[in-house]
Request: fold
Amino acid sequence: MPMFQPRRKDSGGGDGDGYILDVESAVKDGVLGGGAVAVYGGEKLDLKKMIEELNLCEVPSVFICPISLEPMQDPVTLCTGQTYERSNILKWFSLGHYTCPTTMQELWDDTLTPNTTLHHLTHTWFSHKYVQMKKRSEDAEGRASELLTNLKRVKGQARVQTLKELQRVVANHSAARKTVVDEGGVALVSSLLGPFTSYAIGSEVVAILVNLSLTSEAKMSLMQPAKVSSVVDVLNEGSIETKINCVRLIEMLMEEENDFRTELVSSHSLLVALMRLVRNKRHPNGHLPALALLKSISTLKEVRSLIVSIGAIPHLLELIPVLNPECVELALSVLDTLSSVPQGKQALKDCSNTIPTMVKLLMRITECCTDYALSILCSVCNLSPQECSLRAVDAGLAAKLLLVIQSGCSPALKQRAAELLKLCSLNCSDTIFISKCKLTRTIQ
Reply:
């Protein structure tokens, strides 16, 4: 349950959404609605269930417990006139407090009087909200079913408009999403993807599919090469929202590990589109999904050389300084995975900013990032020990490795740092190595 944040009543007034101080004000302003609604669809409405299902961020403050800042289900009033949720005030008393939490007055009477009026009004208000939500859901279910029927017979621009409305309905209503799945809508919508699918149709189809719970059978159907190719075409042409939807859909398909075929993502066009999305500085919201998919694809050994061939390594190294921590970790994971193939190691060695960037990341973000950076440095230095070790020490690696060894990192990480430190010391003169360690005493 989100914490309640009261809103101040604007000068216009009259809409009942202001800062409610007491029950009298709430009734006067009309925010509590009419009489209580005790039953809906033959089901007795339970206050706790309604509060949980509605999960509202904005609730009249009269219903909010001052202690927990959550709606009260069993309000009780103290002798000071302040009302609290029973369980919260009892906990307050159990901690040895015999004061009113709001006023801090000492209590001359510890009686807890049930506030039946407030309980009734709370139930009334939540009942109306709950019934409204249920009716909207039922309307959404009916509309989704109607749109699926229309989709079977309309063509051209009418089909595009039908898909747009269906996308809007499934994006806003979980009941509509269930209806689409239950009535075979996934197969119907998926059938619109193919070699001759227009961008207008494809973008709406993808936007619908990413909002649905796809079965293994549905995913298998979408894994047809012509359908995947259609999604990739939409990815290359679409708006930022459409691109992100395409990436999410492909990620969903890759979750079927046993049935997913590597050749479906061994596409130059797909990988280039992903790197464009990663490099798009105008829309940073695309970085995380694109990097997440790139990480998933890089786990496929057969595709790693292709990822290297499109210039992914220098581009990722260039972007790391401006990415947020979560994206940095994903980018480092991809680079570390690519360093496992000869082309990847060579590309990392040939980039002038590989070593300085990796050294800078040691002990900077998370232990996981340090692990990836250290692994990449080991790959590069082992490829060309004399050249790369000297460049790494010049970049301050020795001092950073000593810091890793003395830190609370895992034993495996410390062991790798010690091995790399030894490799660097063997390929540098003692004078240079000690000075770069920033030590004033000789290392024995």
